[in-house]
Each structure stands twice: as C-alpha cells, then as structure tokens.
Amino acid sequence: MWTKVVCADLKNELNRLKTGNALEVQRYNNAIEAMSRVMAEPILNGDGKSGLRNYKAADVLAQYRLFYEVLKEHNVVHFVWINNEKYIHDLSQTPDPCYDHFLTLINTNKLPVYTPTKSATEYTLSGTFGVSDFIYAKYSDSSTGTARSFLNITTDDKRTYHLKNISATDEDQGLEEILLSKVIKSATGLGIKLHFELDKSRDPLRVKFLENLLTKNNFQISDIDNEIELWELVCK
Questions:
Q1: Which of 31, 37, 123, 148 satisfies CB 3.0 to 4.6 Å to 172 for a cystine?
Q2: Which pLDDT band, with edges at 50, 70 and 90, does 40 fall under?
Q3: Confidence (pTM)
C-alpha cells in the first residue's frame, strides 16, 4: 500500500506541460504513465541510479527523467522533479546536464522535503451487507469529511454485492487497497459474495493495478466475457 505525493513545483511543471505544445503534452502524458509504473512496484523497479543518494529516476522520454524517492517508513512515493529543455538528459555531454543539475539540487538542499500529513483518515460504511441495497464506503479526512478514497457497492438479492468505481485522489492511491480490505472485513462471516467486473479494454496500467489489488485480497476470476473479467470473493 503506497501513497503518491507530488511536490508543488513538480505539479506546476506538469500543469505547464499539459497545456503546452504537442511535444510538451506528450512529455506530460509520458510523465503520468511513468508515475503509474512507479506506483505499481515502487521497491522492485529498476530506476535506482548511482550517486543520487536515495533518489531514483524514471524514464519519460529519451531526454527527460522524472525523479522521486521511496519513503518506506511512510509508505510514500515522493515525486520531486522533472528536467526541462534547459537541462536535457544527454550522455554525449560531460557531465550530463540533467543529472548534473539534479545533483546540484541535492547538494544545495533545494529539493522539497516530504512532510507527513497531519490530517487523519476515517473509514465509513454507509450501509449493511445483507440488508442494504446500496452501500457507499469511503476514507475521508476526519476534519473536513472530504472523500480521499471511495467505493460504490450495489446488490440485487442482498447475497451478492457488486463493487463499482473504486477510486482515490491522485495523492491517495494507496488508500484503495486499505479501503477494499476494510470492506471485505465488514462482509466477513456473512457468506456474502463480492463481485468486481474488470474491463480489460481500459488503460493497461489501471488494469494491472486492479488485477494486483484483487489478487492481493484473494479475489479469483470466475467468468470471462470478451473484455470483461468477473472476479469473485466469498466472505465466509
């Protein structure tokens, strides 16, 4: 379970790229895809580079790199910087402008430092398995009530419940795994079947994330219809 944190300066740069020219938009899209790859396996990916202390660098395009750190003590992946046109990644130059500037940011303490959020999260299940036709599960800020991760659950017969639209804010993707485990715990002992329809035609990175999430929580594929996989868990 990992939480993605993107520092303010990097968010600003990504927003600039998102509204820029065609090449900048491509760089933005590749950076978002790179973040998704990192979040899928923060520990096991091969982004580690010598000389960067605890930071890693993910490929965005041939001349661009996205830098981040994996903070195991907080279960956080902290994204801190992406190089721009001024600091192109170019191995034909000595030193490489991209890595040389990033090392300067490290050595001059100009990189943002992750600060754990002080707002607590609160789990809410608005409904009861075996009784309610619709259940809404969420993790929210205890101070504001704003949902940071949420899940819609419906049923036709109160014995089989369908999980729909499990989601989280960009910064709180790690909460999806916690939320699903909480929902399963709420249904445990009732003999309830939980179903999740996985649309394989969706974004491949999102599909892989959901497959890993379901597998970790002991769901199994019970049926396949074209691009739709039906995953099932019996909460005994």
A1: 148
A2: confident
A3: 0.60
